[in-house]
Amino acid sequence: MTAPVIDAKFSVAPMLDWTDRHCRYFYRIMSKKAVLYTEMVTTGAILHGKADYLAYHQSEHPLVLQLGGSDPEAMSQATQKAEQYGYDEVNINVGCPSDRVQNGAFGACLMAEPSLVADNIVAMKKASSLPVTVKTRIGIDDFDSYAFLTDFVEKNAEAGCNHFIVHARKAWLKGLSPKQNREIPELNYDRVYQLKKDYPELLISINGGIETLTQAKEQLAILDGVMIGRAVYQDPYMMTNVDELIYGDSANRLSREAVVEAIIPYVKDCIENEERTTTWHIARHMLGLFNGQPGARQWRRFLSENARHHAKDENVFYKAMEAMHQRKPFSAES
Q1: How far is the C-alpha of 231 from the C-alpha of 214, rounded, in Å?
Q2: Per-position b or e across 308-317, b if 16+ CB within 10 A of its CB
Q3: Whole-number mean pLDDT of the chain?
Q4: Predicted confidence band at 3 (pLDDT cuts at 50, 70, 90)?
Q5: Model's pTM, two decimal places?
C-alpha cells in the first residue's frame, strides 16, 4: 500500500534548533493546511539516542520527518520508526552544507553521489509505505550545471522519489558558513523552472529567497510547491494567511492575541507534565508574533527577559501582552 501524497503547496522549511515540536505546534494554531517539517534528525539520534527525537503533538499533521544520513540500512530503520510514529512523509536532507553534516557524510555533499541517494530511497521505500522525498540544492561547488542537477534528479526519480524540494542556490562545501550559503550563492529560479518543464511528471517545490505569500503565489503559477523558512520564523503571523491565500480555505483567521490564548493550554500542559520543558522553550519561537505592531518591542523584551526566570509559569504570556499594550517596561513582579 502506498501512502497518499500530502498537499505540499506550502511548507515551512526544516530549520535546525528552530522547528522543534513547540515551534510546530505554534505554527499549526495559525495554519491547518501548511506542511510542517521537523528539524533535521540524524539516523544515529533516532536509532541510538537516549531522547525521543520523534515525539510530536498529534495536531501537527501534515508532518514530515527530515532525515540526515546516508547508510541505507540505518535510513530504512529510521523510516520504519517514522511510520510507526505516524509521520506523513520522510524527507532526505541533501541540502545542508555545514561541516558537521559533511563529516557525517550526508547533506549537500550527497549531490555528488546520486546513486547512493537512490540506494537509500529504494531501501526506505521497501521498509515503509511512507512517501520519500528529497530536499536538495541546484548544485555544489563547481558542479553546478543543469546537466549535473538533472542527472541527480533522474537517478533518484527512477529509485522512487517523485517530489524534489529544490533550494535554488548551489552550495559551497568549503569556505562558506551555512548562513553564507543561504545568502551568497546567487539564486537561480530559472533552473528550477526548467526542471519542472522537463520533468512535468515530478512534483517540484522551490525554496530560497521567498519571503512573502504574494511571492509564494507567483511561484505556484509555475511550480508545485513553495517552502519558506526564516521569513516565517521572523514573522510567524504570516501563517494565518496561508490557508486562505494558498489553499483557498476561507476559515476565520485568528488575531495575534487569540493565537496567544490558543497556545496557553499547551504551554500549561508541557510545563506541568514535562520536567525539562520550560516556558522559554515555547516562548522563544513566539518573539516575532507581533512584529510590525505597536508594542512589538515590549513583547519581545518581556518574553526574552522573563520567560527564562519564570520557567514554569504560563502567565508570562499574559503579562507580556499587558506590557505590550502599556508600551512601557513591565516587571514580572507586578
Answers
A1: 13
A2: eebeebbebb
A3: 93
A4: very low
A5: 0.93
178 vs 111, more confident: 111
| Residue 327 DSSP code | T
Distance CA 98, CA 103 (A): 9
When pLDDT is averaged across residues 37-59 and rounded to a whole number, the result is 95
Q: Spell out the domains of the chain, with CATH numbers in brackets.
A: 10-245 (3.20.20.70), 256-326 (1.20.120.1460)
- Which residue in the block uniquely carries the three cell numbers 514530515? 64
C-alpha 15, offset from chain centre: 5
The catalytic residues are 96
User: What Å distances lie between residue 11 and 142, 174, 224, CA to CA?
Assistant: 29, 29, 11
> Which residue, chain included where needed, has cell 498529534?
58
Distance CA(332)–CA(334), nearest Å, equals: 5
Average pLDDT over residues 65-74: 97
User: Which contiguous run of DSSP H or E holds residue 62?
Assistant: none
